[in-house]
Write a structure and sequence with these properties.
single chain, four-stranded parallel β-sheet, 258 residues, 47% helix, alpha/beta
């Protein structure tokens, strides 16, 4: 069977000039700001213009662009190789939500490939209406617009899938080899925050992140570890034991971050 696998992710700016339009695309998404378009679009332009200078400085530290596309391309090639070894004829395509390659570009490429079946694979381990659902809604819209009529299977999420949990735990275990006994450490599990209203509408992202962390800690079998879940958006909210990733939190002794 000729198989197309579509890898979904948020995307990121490929140069400093792309930072502001990337942010504008992000905040134009109705899954992020649920206001009428005549309000959402100018608001997105305003937010993007305000945040772009700081965001550019951050991307400068990353070499002037986001690493998300080249890393996703590496994942795509690795997945193709693994499937080929298992005897499958498969090709991966990348669909980013907020920057190139956009979903419309991925749909066009998949249609040209002419597969017999399509697997839609979000690279968001935890499901959220702002990420997974938004990407899949955009795919369905573009597939209909470009008349792509091929049987499709959607992968929802995998917050406590054994291989995913093991991969995180292995990374933490590797980092713990370098700790010093005389130093106090804190393990930070970093996640994106969501507006409180999104969580209150039933978005499962928060509890799925918490389940991921619980599964990782259970696999590590290190009850002595001091750990926290921290959120990376100051404007976001999270209930329970989650803390904002503030300078005070990050500076409280040396930390091991996952």
């Amino acid at each position: 069977m000729k198989l197309a696998i579509v890898l979904f992710n948020l995307g990121g700016p490929d140069c400093l000039e792309a930072v502001q339009p990337f942010l504008q695309n992000l905040f134009s998404d109705p899954a992020i700001i649920s206001l009428p378009s005549f309000v959402r679009w100018p608001l997105a332009r305003f937010i993007a213009a305000r945040r772009a200078p700081l965001a550019k400085k951050i991307y400068e530290h990353l070499g002037g662009s986001s690493p998300i596309l080249p890393e996703t391309e590496e994942q795509a090639r690795a997945l193709e190789a693994a499937l080929a070894q298992a005897g499958h004829q498969a090709k991966c395509f990348i669909a980013m939500r907020c920057w190139h390659p956009f979903t419309r570009e991925a749909v066009k490429a998949v249609k040209a490939f002419a597969p017999e079946r399509i697997v839609l694979l979000p690279l968001y381990p935890q499901y959220s209406t702002t990420t997974t659902q938004s990407s899949l809604v955009e795919w369905r819209k573009e597939a209909a617009r470009q008349d792509l009529k091929v049987p499709q299977h959607e992968v929802c999420c995998y917050p406590f899938e054994e291989g995913f949990v093991a991969a995180i735990a292995d990374l933490v275990t590797d980092a713990l080899q370098y700790i010093k006994k005389e130093v106090s450490y804190r393990l930070l599990f970093s996640a994106h925050g969501l507006p409180k209203r999104v969580i209150e509408r039933g978005d499962p992202y928060q509890w799925q992140v918490e389940r991921t962390v619980a599964a990782v800690m259970a696999r590590l079998k290190r009850p002595d570890l001091d750990w926290r879940i921290v959120i990376r958006a100051a404007s976001a909210r999270w209930n329970g034991l989650v803390r904002p990733l503030t300078p005070k939190c990050a500076a409280r002794g040396r930390r091991t971050k996952a």
